[in-house]
Amino acid sequence: MDSRYLELAYRIGLGQSERIAQLWAMIADSSEADILLALPADSPAVAAKLGRPEAEIAASLHTLFVKGVVFPSGKTSPPNYRMSRDLVQFHDASILWPDAPQAFLDLWQDFMDVEWPDIARTYHQLMPRPFTRVIPVGISVEGKTHVLAFEDVREIIENARAIAVTKCTCRLTAHKCDKPLEVCLQINRAAEYNLARGTGRALSKEEALDIARKAEEAGLIHVVMNKQSIDHFICNCCACCCQTMPILIEHNISVIEPSRFAAAIDAETCSACGACVDRCFFSAITQEGEEPAQVNAEKCMGCGLCQVVCPTESICMTEVRERDFVPEKMFG
């Protein structure tokens, strides 16, 4: 393996992973690898460092931007570029590379199946809070005045200045279910980024709300970054392909936090149909015979998917965590 690709893997904290080095080798040729290793810098500085024409460097930087491995700053002119800063950014951006060969996507999934669980465990031990959190579906919540702007799907969409949709990178590589693929909502800066790369499709607010509603009906959970300002994404996650859900469900590693809510079931009106049991990713609802369903509050992630399918409207979402449970900033 060319040492340049090992160095690129090292720079995102995964120098021990041959698969990550191979992924870098598949997405960047040797000339592009030299440019990546010269960052952060603007195109004149990279050209001077490598002794290559600035026009050539600028064109290569644009190509690398489309591939999802460099990110320009809008604060300088010419823009200062940096490479992917971590595994999550490398994964999420590079998988949407428009010309990604199938072998590249397959290698990503091989990495996720084989190496990711142990890496996720390490991240969980090192990080003070999980990177993402659940927000409840856009349906009724008990005591609506307690639902805050940063946990209300409709309000997040209504307040967004820009919205785009991309394919779900997890289902694009994993193929473990037939859930909808083009449902990853990009908000504000993330929308602008994906539109500039050509990896996203611009949406009206009505179109975004329709995608969110259809995702709920399909049994997908809304997930956002774990902070109060929502200016990146609303993922719509399944239980099998997602980066985080199987890690929590199968390995019991808390790489995603619950919402501030939990499901509550009215025993008097519950028809014991079992629909909510089948719907729950987390085995938080049980139901035996003709007895009403019951919620294990410790397991409930507060997504609200059970409420979507309850034929007797016996399920409501109740506030179980204080407002300050959601940090103002990442890792707060």
**Segments where pLDDT lies below 50 for 5+ residues?**
none
**Spatial shape:** elongated
The level of helicity is 40-55%
Tell me which CATH architecture of the largest domain applies here: 2-Layer Sandwich
CATH fold type of the largest domain: Alpha-Beta Plaits
Helices, by number, come to 15
Task: Give the C-level CATH assignment of the largest domain.
Answer: Alpha Beta
Strand order across the biggest sheet? 6-4-5-8-7-3-9
Order of helices and strands: HHHHHEEHHHEHEHEHEHEEHEEHEEHE
- Indicate the radius of gyration in whole angstroms: 22 Å
- Per DSSP E runs of 2 or more residues, the count of β-strands stands at 13
Q: Mean pLDDT across all residues, rounded?
A: 93
* Structural category: alpha+beta
Question: Span from first to last CA?
Answer: 39 Å
How many discrete domains? Answer: 2
As a percent range, the share of strand residues is: 5-15%
Q: Please describe the biggest sheet, giving its number of strands, its sense, and whether it closes into a barrel.
A: 7 strands, mixed
